[in-house]
Recover the amino acids of this structure.
């Protein structure tokens, strides 16, 4: 029997809420053959919409329900969330349809009582929408947390580091869908040629703002099914991440170590910049991820990447003093990726950050010995947490006086809203740069 788009969305959300699953992987798993673009679009809209607005939706349901949220069966609660999301956020769906579709799901998954419960709550919210949407709290942290559905600890940290207005803008932007970026594989094609091909297929394409090898695709549905993708003419990569290669800018023929390499987005870009000449040692702690690096390298026509499994927290004597360039694209809290993976807001815990900082520092401390004198270290993360970025790098530089940040002004042409290039690092934010939240520092080992 074919499931409706809303029922598929229910199954996906249930798995994410109950098992802490990743949104992109779970969506892929549940999309079945035969769904048309419109149904697939609705499933994605509901899943991402509910995840992005989860705290606000819960707030609205708890105002309407006499039963505490914790006491509502998780499937019924998810059905309610799908209904509320459509009532509040999707204008084109008539309220009666939003209510009826949720009631139909309740008929399938609940009993007489729960059907009445879902119907009553959704009708009440639909009739008094403005009243239910009001956020009646005085505290700024509580307000931002509910309105933009970010956990309080996150809002509190960001207000402390960046201020109220900045945090509100950032949280607002985190709930918008990001554009898709692709990176051109200059070993196989060039920007103009690829752009022309994509436009011929009907894609709307424009240049990215900061990364030379990146394009923005506005309507990317099923872009990875194109022959150009299969032939390795491009890879999906946010432009912030593409800037890592651009800023490292390794010379062809060099030896590069990439300690946390999977799935190889940055390693393959470095190979491209090196014109597929030299050597890149790509390592990762997870065996199953190594094959992803190899698959990407093969598709992109790269043969200078040598993969192996290793734990970067353990010192490897065979690497000491061999690297001209070293990339530490560290495991991090991922708080710069909330637009793409809204489940991060539910799954990440504040305690994780201290743990991650210890891990990052441990790896950095090994990495420093792998560089030759005069070698270049790039440290990057996809987070906006100062403790994982600038604070960590400052602590490292304080303890290792032979390392210095390098001016990177010549590496980025468009300097709009980036003021720290001279100081050797950049911190990008979704609401300012329209990229993932991302940190990159370039450091030289002077002696
Ligand atoms: C930010 S991701 C790397 C993304 C990759 N550089 C790219 O551009 O495609 C961080 C990677 O670190 C790996 N990792 C986590 N802990 C590690 C460790 N102790 N040693 C080596 N790799 C580790 C994870 O498996 C993950 O693939």
């Amino acid at each position: 029997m074919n499931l409706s788009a809303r029922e598929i969305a229910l199954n996906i959300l249930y798995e994410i809420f109950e098992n802490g699953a990743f949104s992109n992987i779970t969506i892929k798993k549940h999309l079945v053959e035969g769904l048309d673009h419109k149904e697939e679009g609705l499933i994605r809209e509901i899943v991402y919409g509910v995840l992005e607005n989860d705290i606000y939706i819960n707030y609205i349901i708890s105002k309407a329900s006499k039963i505490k949220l914790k006491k509502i069966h998780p499937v019924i609660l998810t059905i309610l969330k799908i209904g509320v999301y459509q009532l509040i956020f999707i204008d084109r769906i008539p309220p009666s349809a939003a209510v009826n579709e949720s009631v139909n799901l309740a008929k399938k998954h609940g009993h007489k009582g729960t059907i009445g419960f879902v119907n009553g709550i959704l009708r009440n919210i639909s009739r008094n929408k403005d009243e239910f949407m009001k956020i009646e709290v005085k505290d700024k942290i509580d307000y931002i947390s509910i309105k933009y559905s970010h956990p309080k600890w996150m809002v509190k940290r960001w207000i402390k580091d960046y201020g109220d207005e900045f945090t509100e803008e950032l949280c607002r932007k985190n709930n918008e869908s990001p554009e898709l970026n692709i990176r051109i594989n200059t070993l196989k094609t060039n920007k103009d040629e690829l752009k022309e091909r994509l436009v011929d297929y009907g894609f709307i394409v424009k240049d990215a703002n900061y990364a030379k090898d990146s394009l923005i695709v506005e309507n990317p549905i099923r872009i990875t099914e194109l022959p150009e993708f299969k032939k390795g003419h491009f890879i999906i990569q946010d432009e912030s991440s593409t800037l890592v290669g651009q800023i490292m800018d390794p010379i062809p023929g060099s030896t590069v170590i990439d300690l946390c390499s999977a799935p190889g987005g940055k390693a393959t870009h470095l190979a491209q910049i090196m014109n597929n000449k030299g050597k890149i040692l790509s390592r990762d702690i997870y065996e199953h991820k190594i094959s992803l690096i190899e698959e990407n390298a093969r598709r992109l026509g790269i043969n200078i990447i040598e993969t192996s499994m290793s734990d970067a927290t353990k010192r490897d004597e065979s690497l000491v003093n061999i690297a001209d360039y070293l990339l530490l694209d560290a495991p991090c809290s991922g708080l710069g990726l909330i637009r793409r993976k809204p489940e991060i807001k539910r799954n990440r815990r504040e305690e994780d950050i201290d743990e991650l900082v210890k891990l990052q520092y441990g790896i950095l401390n090994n990495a420093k010995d792998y560089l030759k004198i005069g070698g270049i270290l790039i440290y990057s993360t996809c987070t906006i947490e100062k403790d994982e970025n600038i604070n960590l790098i400052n602590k490292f530089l304080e303890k290792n006086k032979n390392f210095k940040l390098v001016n990177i002004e010549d590496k980025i042409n468009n300097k709009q809203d980036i003021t720290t290039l001279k100081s050797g690092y950049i911190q990008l934010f979704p609401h300012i740069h329209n990229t993932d939240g991302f940190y990159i520092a370039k450091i030289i080992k002077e002696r």
